[in-house]
Each structure stands twice: as C-alpha cells, then as structure tokens.
Design brief:
A: 262 residues, alpha/beta, six-stranded mixed beta sheet, four-stranded antiparallel beta sheet, 10 strands, 39% helix, B: 283 residues, mainly alpha, 11 helices
Chain lengths: 262, 283
C-alpha cells in the first residue's frame, strides 16, 4: 500500500510539460536593519509540485514566503510567478497575480471581527461578485466541509481552537481556487494529533487541486508527509534541495546535524 | 584622564572631566534623531496619503465598507457630540449672561451664543470629541489588525488595504464631521436657550430670531463645513498610525494614543489657518 510519502514523492516527478517553473526565486537577498536574512537564495517550484522549505528558526523561511506573495520586496534578485517578474509591480497589478495564490499565515491571521463563514467568504465577496449570495454561501460550505469544519460556521475566531483556526485559514486560502499555495508553518503550535490531521488535509487538497505549493516548516516529519521535494536553509541560502533520500545521503555537516536533531 | 607629572609640576589644574564634554555629542545626536524622525514621519505620511488617494479614486469601490464606517463614525458619535454640545451650551450661556450683564448688553445674548457656538465652539468641540472617540478607536483597530497580520492577509487576498480600510474610514470622517457639527451646534443652542430661559423667560422662537438676525449663510456655513478638513485630519492620522504599527500590544496602545494626540494637535493648528482663510474669502 502506498504511503503518504510515496504519494508525495510521485507528485515530485517532473511535469511532462516543459513549461517554465510556476514559482522561480533567483539569487534573492534580503536584509533587515543590516542583518542578512536571505543570502542569494534560488529555488523553483513546478506545476503540481510541493516544496518544503526547512531550517532553523530565524533562517528566513517565512521571509521567503512574504517575498513570493509580495508583502515585502527583496533587496536584490528576482522572483517570477508564471514567468512574470513581480519586482516593482503596483499594488493593483500585484493583486491580479495574488488572485491565483493562496496564503496560509502562521497564526492563520483570521479577521477577528468576522465569523468563520464570513472569513472564508471574504475573498469571494470581493473577487466573485458575479456569484449570487446563495452561490457564495454554497461555495463557503463546500470549502469548510473540505477542511472538516461544517458545524462551526457562525463562531468567531476567538471561540475556536488553534487547529480549527488553521483549517479556516486554509479554507480561506483556497476560496479563489488558486494555482499556487503558500503555507507558513501550517502545523506550528499544534499538538501531534492535530499536526498529523493538518498534514493529511494538506496532502488531500494537493491531490485534488494539483497546486504548486511551498510549505515552510521546521518539522521534518510534517515536511516528509506533505512534500515531494525539500530545501534546507542555513544562513539565508538553501544548502541542499532534493528528496528526503537526497538529504539522508548528504555529507554536508549541517544537513546531517539537522536530520539527527529532528 | 590622568594628571600627568608635567601638569602636576607646572601647577596646571587637570583638564575638564570627560563626562561634561560627552554631553555635547549626546545632545547633538538626539537633536539629529528628532530632526530626522520629524521629516521621516511627514515623508511617510505623504507617501501613505498618495497611496490612499490613488486607491480611493480607482475602482472597485468599497461601498459596503463605506456605509459601515459612516454608521461607525456618524451614528455612533452622535450621542457623544450631542452631550458635549449640551454642556457647552450651558457653560456659554452662564458665562455670556454674566459678562454681558456687566457691560449692559444683555440683549446681545442670543447673537453672542449663536455666533460663539456656530463659528467657534461647535466645530472645535466636535473635532476634539470625535478625534478622541473615532481617532483612538480607528487607530487601535487598525493597529491590532496590523500586529496580528490581518492587514497582510487582506493584501495577500488581492484586496487593496488602502482602499478597503483607509479610504473608507477617511471619507466617512470627512462626510460625517460637518453633520456631527450641526448636531453639536443644535444641542448647544437648545441647552443655551434653556439655561437662559430658566433665569429670564425668552421663547425659543425669539431666541433664534434674535440670534440669527441679520446673519447670512456665509457667516455660518464655511465654519461648519471646515470640519470636513478636521475629518480628513482625524481619519488620515488614525489610519496612518494604525497601519504602520509595530510592537504588539504596546504598539497598539501607542498607535491609539498617538492618533488622538496628533489628530487633536493638527486639528487645532489647522483651525488657525482655516479661520484666516474663511475671514479672507468668505467675510
């Protein structure tokens, strides 16, 4: 019987289509107050592929996601989404690209004055005005059912657990049927059972929606479950990129230490 | 610093203590920081204002959020400004009656009250009260959204936060301040008349007729509509302070405080310019 990892590995097989990568990060540098966070990092993600970005805390993993979604700008280097550089794009133009992307924040970043249902409906109300109110409501119910939250639609974010908030955040990220999914520490702060449930959920969604995904995590086990390819960051750059077996066979000291401690 | 043998032999007193000399670079450094911070703040405010303006004039417009903010700024501030107006009316009535009696000009009481309220007190009191309530509320709300990444989530959802959050709030303040000022004025005149009528019977009709005798629209309308500028100041500063917050709960508190303090200060400074502008162009 195929394991979750086998399924994930199968997802890592290069797409037969020779299109350019969906996400391409090339030689990106980023510093904050003189402290270099990203030091010439380069990586790419193809259609239908999931890349896990691992590393110690403070190595720039979340910063990398923020640069890809355009919430911050790199000091130098280039980021391309579907072959289009996002450097210097105006907010509204960047918005057109973001409509094809979904982002799950580390703390879910739910709108605390809106209910669960209103949170998930938020992107639909702004971008799918062609849908009727009942169509939007059906779509919201469908999304919440996908993440296993049918019964809590009228609750406020403060009334639900951290794991449930992550699920709502995931449902909201999927609202516009994105082609790209960015997940910032999806299992951070969760107990092992909830972490496993979120991991299985992400895997299921990837199988169904075939999105290009980047998952930032410090949890190696979660990364193995969710992703077909892994990149390990150290001092602002990817020291290795490949499958889990590639990491296991690596002779790089930092990689061996990271695997040993995980 | 050591007293070298040579200076000791020569009887020369040792040089000034190092601590006193180091004060000068420290004061200069702080002054430079303050100077830079002052211009950095205004520069950032300018950039923010441009982004909000650009977002406000390009579709899609956030009508639903604007209506929600009109209710938040307008309807929910109405009881407070009405109460403030009522208090001002009584205070002015008591003070004016005493002063006018001393100079034998009691008959001027209605006009004194009307002009004082509509031209000066009503707009300023409304601005300060709304600055406190709305400025603090908006600043804190947006600051809280900033530190919990909700504003980032809005932007990541391909929605322009300057359009959704800032432009709607600023426009609501601009539209609601003149209406709230009218409410303050009405409340102040009503209670002012009532306080006077308790001492010397005077019908409300007579009070209004005497108070507005000979007045034209230009005597009152510019002063009322200048509060739209107050609304711009309150909304702009509250949104700016809120959306640039850092530092968790402490940052939220600072944003709320700074929103009120700066909005109130700029409002009063703007009034100096506006009063002169009205005197030159409308009277």
């Amino acid at each position: 019987m195929a394991t979750a990892y086998d399924i994930a590995t199968k997802q890592a097989e290069p797409d037969q289509d020779s299109r350019a990568p969906v996400i391409a990060v090339e030689n990106v540098y980023k510093s904050f107050a003189g402290h270099k966070v990203l030091n010439g990092i380069s990586l790419h993600v193809n259609h239908g592929e999931t890349l896990a970005v691992l590393g110690r805390s403070g190595t720039g993993k979340s910063v990398l996601l923020r640069l890809i979604i355009g919430l911050d700008t790199p000091d130098s280097g280039e980021i391309r989404i579907h072959g289009h550089s996002i450097a210097g794009l105006a907010l509204d133009r960047m918005g057109e690209i973001r409509k094809k992307m979904g982002f799950l924040f580390q703390q879910a970043a739910l709108y605390d004055s809106l209910t669960v249902q209103e949170n998930v409906a938020f992107p639909l109300e702004h971008h799918r005005r062609d849908m009727s109110k009942s169509e939007r409501a059906d779509r919201v119910r469908q999304l919440l059912a996908e993440v296993g939250l049918d019964g809590d639609i009228d609750k406020m974010p403060s009334d639900i657990s951290g794991g449930m908030q992550k699920r709502v955040g995931l449902a909201r990220a999927l609202a516009l049927a994105p082609e790209i999914l960015l997940l910032d520490e999806p299992t951070a702060g969760l107990d092992p059972i909830s972490s496993a449930e979120i991991g299985e959920l992400i895997l299921k969604l990837q199988r169904e929606h075939r999105m290009a995904s980047i998952v930032v995590t410090h949890d190696l086990h979660s990364a193995r479950t969710i992703a077909g390819r892994l990149a390990l960051l150290n001092e602002g750059d990817a020291v290795i990129e490949g499958t889990f077996e590639d990491l296991q066979q690596s002779n790089i000291g930092f990689v061996r230490e990271f695997l040993k401690q995980s | 610093m050591k007293n070298s043998g040579l200076t000791a032999v020569a009887g020369i007193s040792p040089p000034l203590p190092v601590r006193r000399i180091e004060l000068l670079p420290s004061v200069a450094g702080n002054a430079t920081k303050l100077f830079n911070g002052f211009f950095e703040w205004f520069g950032s405010l300018g950039i923010f204002s441009w982004r909000v303006l650009r977002a406000a004039v390009t579709p899609p417009y956030e009508w639903r959020e604007l209506i929600r903010q009109l209710d938040e700024v307008g309807s929910k501030s109405l009881p407070l400004v009405a109460m403030a107006g009522a208090a001002i009316g009584v205070i002015l009535s008591l003070e004016a009656r005493y002063s006018l009696s001393r100079f034998g000009a009691k008959s001027m009481f209605p006009a004194t009250l009307v002009y004082s309220v509509i031209q000066v007190m009503g707009p300023v009191i409304t601005g300060l009260v709304v600055s406190g309530r709305v400025g603090a509320g908006m600043g804190a709300e947006l600051a809280s959204m900033k530190v919990t990444e909700q504003i980032d989530a809005i932007e990541a959802s391909a929605i322009n936060p300057y359009r959704l959050l800032a432009a709607t709030r600023i426009l609501a303040c601009i539209l609601m301040l003149p209406l709230l000022t009218i409410a303050t004025d009405a409340s102040a005149l009503l209670t002012g008349w009532f306080a006077q009528a308790m001492v010397e019977p005077l019908s409300f009709h007579q009070f209004i007729a005497n108070g507005f005798n000979g007045a034209t629209f230009s005597a009152f309308l510019p002063q009322t509509f200048k509060t739209a500028v107050y609304g711009l100041i309150i909304g702009l500063i509250a949104c700016f302070q809120g959306m640039r917050t850092r530092g968790g709960a402490a940052g939220v508190g600072r944003a709320a405080t700074n929103s009120v303090v700066l909005a109130s200060l700029f409002l009063i400074l703007a009034d100096v310019v506006l009063v002169k502008f009205i005197l030159v162009f409308f009277t």
